[in-house]
Amino acid sequence: MYRAYHSASWDQDMPHSLFFNWEREGLQTGLAIHSAIGDDIARLGQRASAGCVHLSPQNAALLYQLIRADFRGLAPRFAYNYDTQIMSNRGTFMHDAAGRLKMADGYRVLVDIEDYGGANIVASLF
Fold first, then answer.
1. 74-107 burial by CB neighbour count: b if 16+ within 10 A, else e?
2. Quick one: three-class SS letters along the chain?
3. Where are the domains of the chain?
4. pLDDT digits (tens, 9 = 90+) for 67-82
5. Contact assessment for residue 37 and residue 61, using Cβ atoms and an 8 Å cutoff
6. Rounded to two decimals, what is the model's pTM?
């Protein structure tokens, strides 16, 4: 989580960034929920990114503050396929040999984002 982050890949500021901890082919994806800036603010509700979720500046700041203040702690780790080096994005969790969930320090929050082609976009925070 970063209050102020600048993407070197896109040469763009990403205020109030909440990065997804997700690997594909052994690399962190770089995808995040963050504030829209500049011309992207007028494009909210339309595809304007290669994968990040853009929020209004006010909503991004509020989400960042809520998660940072109230949800730090141990969280289950997502399953990881060592052959493909891809972390599960289907909600499958990692377990140890005894069947217990593997936990890691992080933020205990589930953000459910559904994209229906831009017609009905729904995001929920649990």
1. ebebbbeeeeeeebeeeeeeeeeeeeeeeeeeeb
2. CECCCEECCCCEECCCEEECCCEECCEECCCEEEECCHHHHHHCCCCCCCCCEEECHHHHHHHHHHHHHHCEEEEECECEECCCCEECCCCCECECCCCCECEEEEECCCEEEECCCCCCCEEEEC
3. 6-125
4. 999 888 898 888 888 8
5. no
6. 0.71
